[in-house]
Amino acid sequence: METVKTKAYMAALLYACIVGFSFLGTKTCVEVTTPLITLIWRYNMGCVGGLILIISGIVRIKFKGRDSKKLILPAAFYIGFMAVQAIGLNLATSIEGGIVFAMVPIFAQGIAFFLLRERTSALQNVFILISVAGIVIMYTWGSVGLGDINPAGFFILLLSSLLMAFSNVFMRYARTEFKALEVGCCIVIMGCIFFNLVFIANFLLKGIFPLTQYISPFTGGRGGAFTLAILYLGIPCMLFTSTLITYALSRIEAVKGTIFGNLSLVIAVLAGMLLRGEPFFLYHFISTFLIIAGVIGTNIFTEKTTLSGGKL
Description:
With 312 residues, the chain is mostly helical. It has helices at 2-30, 35-55, 69-91, 94-101, 104-116, 122-141, 151-174, 180-204, 211-219, 223-249, 254-258, 260-276, 282-300.
């Protein structure tokens, strides 16, 4: 049992590391094209990776005799999170986005209690708040301030975090019927279809289809950098991370796995410092300490009497 949990924690830690480095890839891509095109190509690359796994026989998704909603629900909520977050970030600042995203473990905690009957101890709740505080400090201390908050943008970002929390909780159910790689492949394939349809519908309504805008990131002067970045964002950061977090959440409680998402910000800061020469200030150190302490504390101080899981 301990070996199984160790593997789950290793998967969650690897998930946080891969997501943390994704910030560097995203910076490269948005310097070349729009966030929407970046998002579409992330799913395109992830879909290619997923299809290769399916065609090669490594992954076999079979619905016969299985509860398909356990596969579709986490994928749908995850895709919904990505779509709604993209809308919210157009209306709000990245600082607001980062702060609201830190609320995901809190939402997951509440959802897991009602759906899975998972409880958290008082100490776990304290450490969850400590981790959230670390992210709030990270985003606000080094900024000039939040400025005028757009209520609509803030609400949409809040909704995106709620969708992410639902996705993580439903991943706990998915593992009882489907393997982690099956969930990962489903997420990238469904996301690829959805975002490409949105892109096509958007421009068909305008009477045009800008093919040049769709492929221009690969043909410009920074096409090589974009290709490498989008490959990383699509396959490791989409396909593999969804697989890793599904694996982790199948073996540890929802809030324990979800809070590792906060650790990705620490990885991003360290990666920026080491690879891009970005400065590391006192508030970075304080925030890093709080986030890591929150993640460790949440996973150590476990509620001894956990209620039995509910049914979907």
